[in-house]
Write a structure and sequence with these properties.
This protein has helices at 2-26, 28-34, 39-43, 45-51, 57-63, 74-108, 125-136, 139-157, 164-170, 182-186, 194-215, 217-242, 252-265, 286-303, 310-330, 335-346, and strands at residues 270-271, 284-285. The protein is mainly alpha-helical. It has a domain at 70-106 and 150-346. Strands 1-2 form a two-stranded antiparallel ribbon. Helix 6 (74-108) crosses helix 16 (335-346) and helix 14 crosses helix 15 (310-330). The termini are far apart. The relative contact order is 0.09. It is a multi-pass membrane protein. Its EC number is 3.4.21.105. Belongs to the peptidase S54 family. Keywords: Hydrolase, Membrane, Transmembrane, Transmembrane helix.
Length: 349
């Protein structure tokens, strides 16, 4: 009996190997996926299901198809902390440098009586109109326009077939990607279609003036970039929990942080839906909009809705609320020590 069982088991294994070889040579895409998997995941995972049923779920997921686990969140978490710290420290130094440069301009009479830089008109009419429009913007609005321009460039790059592999690697937020850390940031500059691009950039421009008055251009840029990584980090956590690794793109996580910060600071402000308010007059208080968005994204995360990345939306919103309530006092209001340290390095003007 033992010999017959051993013979049947050997024949069954040979049958599996022959079927695997047929699939290997007939399906190149399937082979490409398997070549990136660990050797243990290719051969031992089907057998372990029969011998180790009592193992924990996270251990099984770790061995299954080489998918990331909670341990793989350590690098994205460290990247989020280090990158956010570098953004705020760099913004503090940037604010010092801008103040120093403005003092030099005042001494050298490079600034007009209104406190703005002196510009000279361009020769051609188109360049003159562009120059006049650009000079009419505040310094903060110019940086917002630069963010919008970066999103437009990435959107156009998606239309180039030769650039799509690089964009899939670095501009799609996914814990299972080849560059999970940098994609947390760069995915905030990637929009998948024109309506997606237009909606996000319209919201960014609509709230830019209020956000710039609230933070200032240096603090706003650090806050915007940091919120993008924090939103992606929470998205990673939910994707690993559900073992669903669909790539995510878009600036909505960072925009939710801006929206949450503005609505919490001005809870009685009246908001309306873009373009619909001109047809059907309506308005909502900022506090009501804040509660509805948080409730909607929370339900989306718990129910597993896949149309939006609700985890990224909720992560950005919670980061915006935390920063306005506690983070600004803990981080930005302590910038004087960093600026004094930088002034000691730079020396007197």
């Amino acid at each position: 009996m033992a010999a017959s069982r051993l013979g049947s088991l050997c024949s069954l294994n040979l049958l599996k190997v022959s079927c695997f070889q047929q699939v290997w040579h007939s399906a190149p895409l399937y082979r490409t996926t398997l070549t990136h998997l660990p050797r243990q995941s290719q051969w031992r995972t089907p057998l372990r299901k029969f011998h180790q049923r009592s193992r924990r779920r996270d251990d099984i997921v770790e061995q299954k198809n080489g998918y990331p686990t909670y341990r793989d969140l350590l690098k994205p978490l460290g990247f989020t902390i280090m990158f956010s710290g570098a953004c705020f420290a760099g913004s503090m130094v940037w604010q010092y440098e801008m103040t120093r440069l403005k003092a030099k301009k005042i001494i050298s009479n490079w600034i007009s009586n209104e406190g703005r830089d002196v510009f000279y008109p361009k020769s051609h009419s188109f360049r003159s109109h562009v120059n006049m429009w650009w000079n009419s913007l505040s310094d903060g609005q110019k940086y917002v326009v630069s963010i919008i321009g970066a999103n437009v460039l990435v959107f156009l790059a998606w239309r180039l077939p030769s650039a799509q592999p690089t964009l899939m690697k670095y501009f799609c937020s996914n814990p299972n990607s080849a560059a999970p850390c940098w994609s947390m940031l760069l995915s905030a500059f990637s929009q998948y279609n024109f309506m997606h691009l237009f909606t996000n950039m319209y919201v960014l421009w609509s709230f830019s003036n209020v956000a710039l008055n609230l933070f200032g251009k240096e603090q706003f840029l650090a806050f915007y970039l940091s919120s993008a990584t924090v939103a992606s980090l929470l998205s990673y956590c939910v994707k690993i929990t559900r073992c669903q690794f669909t790539p995510s793109v878009g600036a909505s996580g960072a925009l939710m942080a801006v929206l949450g910060a503005v609505c919490l600071t001005y809870p009685n402000a009246q908001l309306s839906i873009a373009f619909i308010g001109d047809i059907i007059p309506h308005s909502f208080s900022a506090s009501a909009v804040l509660k509805v968005i948080i409730a909607f994204d929370t339900v989306g995360v718990l129910a597993g809705w896949k149309f939006f990345d609700h985890a990224a939306h909720l992560g950005g919103m919670l980061f915006g609320l935390w920063y306005v309530t506690y983070g600004r006092k803990l981080i930005w209001e302590q910038r004087e020590s960093v600026q004094k340290w930088w002034h000691h390095i730079r020396g007197d003007p």
